Amino acid sequence: MKETLKEKYNLKAERMVNAFGYEAFIYRSIVYCIVPIGNLEQEELYEIKYLSDFMIQKGDIRVGSLLLTTDGELSTILNNEEVVVIRCPVLNHRITNSLGYELARFHKRGRTFPYQVSKVNRIGQWKYLWEKRVDQMELFWKEKVNQHPDNHFETLFVESFPYYIGLAENAIQYLVDTEIDEPPTPIDSATICHHRFTENTWNKDSFTKLPTDWVFDHYTRDLAEFIRGQYVSGQSKQNAQIVHFLREYERVNPLSPFSWRLLYARLLFPLHYFECIEGYYMTDSDIQREKQLHRLESILTHSSENEHFLATFLSNVGVDKKRVNIPSIDWLQK
User: pTM value?
Assistant: First the structure.
């Protein structure tokens, strides 16, 4: 590995460490993270580099910088895995602002990105992506029904899917109605977001950001995924954290009526369920499959709490439905 790093990046790995959940090394007192890129294509990596370079130029000193190899590529092979090397910012002090406040500042800055991106662009694509996901899983579910489930996970999947496809279709309809009924405002223009934003996405002490998880989308993507991460555990005490997070966010970026409805549509879509099913069938690891089984059991156990959360979410976070004109989902209120 050290030879490859020297050859490909002209960097000497003086000491190997772990940083931000990744293998890393130190060279001349600077931390470099080695981040596996999974299925990301070169074009996506270049767009992510444009986004991160822009944010650094705009003054976000907490964004990591993707390095080019000596032959001008953005990735290389290390230990049989395709990776990028990210130069991490040198930070000597903790950040004192809250996560919601800092995320709002991040989105505000990202909204000024002036160029077109295509590979990492997700703005306006939720309906298409959700429908595609639902259709693919419905075909897969029909196969499993015809073959008859042969283990506990498959039994749970076959029995629970009709409920979750109904929830997903509700979310898609809610999204469509939002786009017809509610005009977007300037704050609803695309910005830099994360594939899945949770309270652990940024380093907790310094809020260092590694850009390999970035997409270009509506900012409520990040708000919804943070909130989902808080409530899918089924712990009602997370409500106070969600309210605090949103209030802090709105100190910088008050949500528009369009945003509130988009946020709610995304919360309605049972993404955590879909990811759990996909995670089980996409791995060959027995340990990972066992993990997804426990995750599915937890999702199903907490489904009524999830319904209650969705039914009461808007009133719990203090949204005046009359002022903002957010339709309720009737069957959730029962």
Answer: 0.94
